[in-house]
């Protein structure tokens, strides 16, 4: 609530207030908010903005006094608001609420107003209050709301980022890349964060109010990001998104069909907080990215491949096998997700020791409760790297996701379990994010852990394990002379075709080794939860001294076609025991069946205000009919998603859509398309289109 007080005679009162709020005006340009759809004044804290006040007669700075008041009040809840008074001074000083007159024209004065770099963000109401010895007059400036946001351009703001290219990427870029698939088969999808679109800023502040956190805490990016990680999922607070990892998405939208956050946030806001169906990790991360960038916190989406889900705080991933070397599924509660997407936000961490600010993990996917609520973070990436799991928030869980050891336990005849194998470098691979200023993928694994097997990395793991529920695991004696690995050629199999892998065994000893290998291929959700076994068999094995043997392995389309779930994810598990040494062999390999892209082709040049024809082509790779196919198109400056209910697509058929658009914004743009179909998921495409001015 902005209020201005002035000591004047009763006959001199405020006639008008001009907040200079136009998108191409100096306030919004200098505050980097000219891209927001709203026509309200949107400013960033810790930075000066300007405004005009017109009185009924000329203002006399010597005899008349002005005072500015800001009032932040909840709209949807009954929590306490904030009232701030701003004095008129001759010289502005940083880190204070102050204002000064910088120009006077007849009855009008132009004010430069300083905002506090640690002020609570939010939507402030504005009133001019003028008072004299005979009374007080109020001039409400309705509907001139002023939005105050975090400021990565201000050195005194906790979210300050000192690189302009990074600020443009992590705050101002409304298009991004999200990675999925497996470590060997990294897929890419473009996501429309839509943080500047119609109603999105209002939706983000609406979400904060749902958090039931005092508005005085809205000044702290640590608290705001933790609140957002809880509120983007609907698990215990009627937040934005309902998750579903089942095979059916009746009554909602399949997670793979979303291609942006705008529709989700508008739907939630316009329904007064009815959760939106359905999400999986990349949707949670896409929406979290949108909310935090919209509020001014530098944020990026990060994908961790072979991401562990540690359920018992052991900081290890425990796999239990029986005497026949088969996995005991009801005891193995830990899982490894093919990939998991979270966010990183940039901020200082004054609550932690020096050196632990910077990038912080913020994860809205509801995996495990944290302090009674489904949320995760902010977790210092530096603390994860060093194994400092005693630092808040949720560092043990994030550490386990990226750097836990995978331990195989075999059941003994007395019912107890013994440790038979440790994999020290399978978890947390190819941790990826979009590059600054381009669509390239950047590997940031080194930010989360030291090189695998290095002394620093082992020290971090053992330091972290001391805080886990099994602190006496290390060191574990192992002596192995036969190794087993699984390899895939190239980018891997396409859905609709056969999957071909290779099992490679090496005998490093000078003696012959024999074994019986048991292999099992299972269809699974990308979260590592197994659905069903597709194929299972044994392979007799003889290895000569120092021999390396490659065993080709094939899974035919007809064997898996009726079993697939979302993402086309499969796991090949190989186990065995060397007869001569009783050494246990055990390894797993996750792979996915790649889906075709939607091919988007503009017909002719794109010009602002001129109709543009775009062709979208898709070929069904399956020998099955696709039922009830829906296409979703967004981007190119559109303020909503265009949905096209196509119907059925015949087996192996090619579909061509012709759509028309009228671009509204000049410059480089992206057009996104995705397909919603129960039988074939994760089908999408993107086109880069340069729109010419009129």
Give a quick rundown of the structure.
With 694 residues, this protein is mainly beta. Helix content is 14%, strand content 41%.
Outline the structure in words:
With 694 residues, this protein is mainly beta. The protein is 14% helix and 41% strand. The protein has eleven helices and 41 strands. The strands form eleven sheets. Strands 1, 3, 5, 6, 9, 10 and 11 form a seven-stranded mixed sheet that branches. Strands 22-19-18-16-25-26 form a six-stranded antiparallel sheet, with helices on both faces. The protein has a five-stranded mixed sheet with strand order 35-41-40-37-38, with no helix packed on it. Helix 3 crosses helix 5.
Structural class: mainly beta
Helix count equals 11
Distance between the termini: 40 Å
Shape: globular
Report the biggest beta sheet as strand number plus sense, adding barrel if it closes: 7 strands, mixed
Radius of gyration: 29 Å
Low-confidence stretches: 474-478
